[in-house]
């Protein structure tokens, strides 16, 4: 993992204070890196998509650096620890701010018992966290992350606050069918869009369905006869987040589309 910047702090803020024992194991292979995070949003990685009323779990790994300069070259001070202060979710449609628990999920820290607060992460060590629960509220949520990093100044730890945004958590409708079509076989672009979007890599049979987050279907086409690369006009669609789903031979794949006029 190289050339990571604020992603460490953003990822660390995906933990909430909890007295539970995490089920994950800090066993990710960071190679020779001094620090890193997985998934890494700077590499296009994200957490797994969640589906409403379906049990969900995903794991995040982090290797904490020993010096703050690994994150910011202008901040060359020994790093003592990093502590999550709070995690804020904002619904991208209503702009309402809610807690993670309000959508049925929690994030459980595991710092291997190195501090009474399980969300205190000591420098030079690898940790993990699990995002767990059964989501009850569909939506696409932006995360604002409030973190305090403790650097050592004249032998005394001093808290430095940070605020980051950028992670997006998708909670989608329950998918139809069984099995999965690889999401790498088809792409949606541009996304966000204002007037039209295109899909490349469509299979030769099945159904293409686009719905809003309420479940209302706004577009449905049989794939038979559609070109593998097809475009669709959205001039009359309202701003918001839409779910694109492909069902083909009892397999399904889902992606989100953002409309911004």
Folded structure, characterized:
The chain is mainly beta and 261 residues long. The chain has two domains: 7-172, Immunoglobulin-like, CATH 2.60.40; 183-259, Sandwich (Immunoglobulin-like), CATH 2.60.40.3080. The protein is built from one helix and 17 strands. The chain has one helix spanning 7-12, and strands spanning 36-38, 50-51, 56-63, 79-91, 97-98, 105-110, 120-122, 126-133, 139-153, 156-172, 187-189, 196-200, 207-212, 217-222, 230-233, 240-248, 251-259. The strands form four sheets. Strands 2, 4, 5, 7, 9 and 10 form a six-stranded mixed β-sheet that branches. The protein is elongated, with a radius of gyration of 21 Å. Residues 1-22 have low confidence and may be disordered.
Produce the secondary structure layout.
Elements: H1 7-12, E1 36-38, E2 50-51, E3 56-63, E4 79-91, E5 97-98, E6 105-110, E7 120-122, E8 126-133, E9 139-153, E10 156-172, E11 187-189, E12 196-200, E13 207-212, E14 217-222, E15 230-233, E16 240-248, E17 251-259
Parallel strand pairs: 2-10
Antiparallel strand pairs: 1-3, 3-8, 4-5, 4-7, 4-9, 6-8, 9-10, 11-12, 12-15, 13-14, 13-16, 16-17
CATH C-level class of the largest domain is Mainly Beta
Helix content: under 10%
CATH topology of the largest domain: Immunoglobulin-like
Q: Low-confidence segments, ≥5 residues, pLDDT <50?
A: 1-22
- Tally the helices: what do you get? 1
Instruction: Tell me the series of helices and strands, N- to C-terminal.
Output: HEEEEEEEEEEEEEEEEE
Largest sheet: 6 strands, mixed
On the 0 to 100 scale, the average pLDDT is 79
Principal-axes geometry comes out as: elongated
What radius of gyration results from the CA coordinates? Answer: 21 Å
User: Would you identify the CATH architecture of the largest domain?
Assistant: Sandwich
Number of strand elements: 17
Structural class: mainly beta
Counted up, domains total 2
N-to-C terminal Cα separation, in Å?
37 Å
Question: What is the strand content?
Answer: over 45%
